[in-house]
Amino acid sequence: MRARQSRPSVARVYSYVLGGRDNYGVDKDLGDYFMGDLPGSELLAITNRQAILRAARILAAGGVRQVIDMGCGLPADVNVHEVVRREQPDARVVYVDNDPFVVAHGRALLAIDEGITVLEADARDPSKIAEHPDVQRLINFDEPVGIIFGVVLSFVSDDEDPAGVVKYWTEQLAPESQVYISHFRPGKSREAAATERKILEAFGGHFRNDEQILACFEGLELLDEGLSPCAHWRPDPETEQAETPEAELSAWAELIVAGLARKA
Ligand SMILES: C[S@@+](CC[C@H](N)C(=O)[O-])C[C@H]1O[C@@H](n2cnc3c(N)ncnc32)[C@H](O)[C@@H]1O
Question: CA-to-CA distance for 85 and 219, rounded, in angstroms?
């Protein structure tokens, strides 16, 4: 029998929208609301996830052999370590999430060998993560590291200083390390505004403008001209894409943007 849960979690609803099965009724109800009452809003999750996997491939293809996936979420159809290890078979991956449900599922499905770990930790406390024995064991900060912040900084308030969180890591990283960030950004369309309201009501969070998001890359060299909607970020013919008509995408695409930067 399924346990009851009174509040939806962002990890479970996101996973449900992506087609995952690890959720409670309350998560399914909210996911169904997004897909039924705000049709097309699921593209936010889908295009964000696809962009993360492209970023993981780009990092590894560029020579990065150690990755930290911050706010990793529930295991999905394709996971960061799988993409990274296609390019770098001996890559080490640290998954981090502060949701115990995510961590339990991640430990069961993602931590398949000694080179992968799933930490229950808070992205807002980076020094605690860096000092964790598993991170010390798997990550050599004298060599390039890839850090993925997939949406997670959208759940860090201004007072908690998202740019300061990234800066902590930037200062630890060796040259040629790379940082990928995807982040909620306010949209202009009626559909985007309604989706933003529903996300804030359900999960809290922070939609930031380009200037605020770009501030998170301080000390790093942005590898593209600026931020792009995840749907359009670094299209890669080798990675599977959802077939999405441009008109359908345009109402939502602006709500989530991505950027990749390197440490010189
Ligand atoms: C929308 S999901 C994104 C999952 C994955 N990064 C992706 O983009 O495909 C956001 C994840 O961030 C996690 N999260 C939120 N705040 C966090 C924090 N302060 N520290 C660690 N994880 C956090 C949530 O539990 C959730 O799994």
Answer: 28
- CA of 241 relative to ligand 1 center, distance in Å: 22
H or E segment and range at residue 66: strand 66-70
User: Structure tokens of 73?
Assistant: 């979420």
The label of the residue with tokens 């809003």 reads 41
CATH assignment at residue 173: 3.40.50.150
Q: Which two tokens stand for residue 255?
A: 């709500």
DSSP at 182: E
The count of structural domains within the chain is 1
Q: Quick check: is 179 in a domain?
A: yes
| 109-155 pLDDT, tens digit each | 998 999 999 999 999 999 999 999 999 999 999 999 999 999 999 99
Amino acid letter at 91?
A
Q: Which of 260, 235, 250 is nearest to 187 (CA)?
A: 250
Task: Please report whether residue 5 resides in a domain.
Answer: no
Return d(Cα 155, Cα 206) in angstroms, integer.
Answer: 6
- For strands 146-150 and 178-184, give the pairing: parallel
Considering only CA atoms, which residue is closest to atom 9 of ligand 1? 49
> Which residues form the domain of 202?
10-262
In testing the pocket of ligand 1, which one of 54, 97, 181 has its CB within 8 Å of the most ligand atoms?
Answer: 97
Q: Per the domain annotation, does 223 fall within a domain? A: yes
Would you place residue 1 in the very low, low, confident or very high pLDDT band (cuts 50, 70, 90)?
very low
Q: What CA–CA distance (Å, rounded) separates 143 from 65?
A: 9
85-122 core/surface letters (b: 16 or more CB in 10 A; e: else): bebbeebbbbbbbbbebbbebbbeebbeeebbbbbebb
